[in-house]
Amino acid sequence: MSVKAWGSRERVFTALNHREPDRVPINFGGCAQTTILECAPEAPGATNLYRHLGVEPKEPFVLSALANQVYNMDPAIMDRFGSDFRLIMPNSGDTFYAPTNVPVLEYPVGTGAIVYPNGSKTLLGCSCGLHVKKLGLYVDVCERPLEHAETIADIENYPYWPTEADIRHMADGKLEEIRRIKKESGKVVLEDTYKAYPHLMYSLLCGMEKWMIDMKTEDMFFRALSDKLFEVGMMLIEYWIKPIGKEIDIVSTYDDMGMQNGLLISRDDYREHLKPYEREMILALRKHTDAKIYRHSCGSVYDVIGDFIDIGVDILNPIQPLAKNMEPWRLKKEFGKDITFFGGIDTQELLYKDPKTIRAGVKETLEIMGKGGGYIFATSHNVEPDTPPENVVAMFDAALEFGKY
């Protein structure tokens, strides 16, 4: 008797419908939060993995503007690890090279980043003027451009709010690219833009401390800046999601809510200050696409998973199992019928152990999370650049072996 051959698309959507396919779907490199970091020259994680697998890069690594994530993982490596996904990102705009380190306030339309002689950058468009540079291993925010903003006028006069002209190019050619990827690879296509509006972007622009203090003590300013940032989020949907909505399979939403031991803010504050915006964001997405919606939030978010389900989140990523109350057995038991879990393989400790221990950890997670579908195998965040490449291989080999139904 012949055995049915499953393709990636059927496999993934069967799991998303909480049924068991031939094996648990796998994501590596098909999401901005489940790839590997390249922190050359000190810690070239992706380069080391390529060398270990004997794969020669066909093109330079395309890295995220923050945190050194590899966006263009070689399909040969993704296929070697059984990845059922491909990542699509918007056009990023042109680069403008500043003559000095003095902040540039005027630049050509369509500029995506201003690069200064000292190596720092101002990220434009929907990044709203974030100022970044390499700090240690990683590229990170180095200045908070709205840290000292106090008035509505300060918000209105901020020079880096995006205009239609700045971002209308984001989706040029991307609908055709998605169609080509689907036809040629048969994979599920996931877009992963940083739709972290308003609150994560608020903290990036102002600082975490100011975000929290404003929330509790500066209601008028807090609402005004939150509304402005949410407006940027709506522009991102209009000029990125709307043009690709008919073809994209999974779309992202963001706002990191968790620490290792609990929420960043109280559940009551989440429900008052964040949840209404997140609900409106998802409603806006639903107007333009039937894609599944995945929500990224690091850390312990157990206390608000029910809220995520309530506002229409289909998939939760990245599932950090060492964070408080985020154990796979607990999540599967309490929420497994209502949401798909995406991630769950610990990058904080497990991936630094020996391959035998990694295989055992993978097997245990699959036995819990894979039951009944509703699970996408992936790491609990990006693979850190000092992770031994043989451990990455051991993880995915175990997933392919133990993930079969």
Q: Can you lay out the helices and strands and say which pair or pack?
A:
Layout (H helix, E strand, L loop, with lengths): L7 H9 L28 H9 L21 H6 L4 E4 L5 E4 L13 E5 L5 E3 L6 E6 L2 E6 L8 H5 L7 H4 L6 H12 L2 E4 L7 H8 L1 H10 L1 H26 L5 E5 L12 H22 L3 E5 L8 H7 L3 E3 L10 H8 L4 E6 L9 H15 L5 E5 L9 H14 L3
Parallel strand pairs: 1-7, 2-3, 8-9, 9-10, 10-11, 11-12
Antiparallel strand pairs: 3-4, 4-5, 5-6
Concise synopsis of the structure shown:
By secondary structure, this protein is of the alpha/beta class.
Strand order of the largest sheet: 2-3-4-5-6
| Alpha plus pi helix count | 14
Q: What summary fits the major beta sheet?
A: 5 strands, mixed
Number of strands: 12
Radius of gyration over C-alpha positions, nearest whole angstrom: 21 Å
Task: Classify the fold: give the CATH topology.
Answer: TIM Barrel
Low-confidence stretches: none
Mean pLDDT: 95
Distance between termini?
18 Å
**Based on CA inertia axes, which overall geometry fits?**
globular
Strand content: 5-15%
Proportion in helices: 25-40%
CATH first level: Alpha Beta
SS-based class: alpha/beta
The number of domains:
1
Q: What series of H and E elements makes up the topology? A: HHHEEEEEEHHHEHHHEHEHEHEHEH
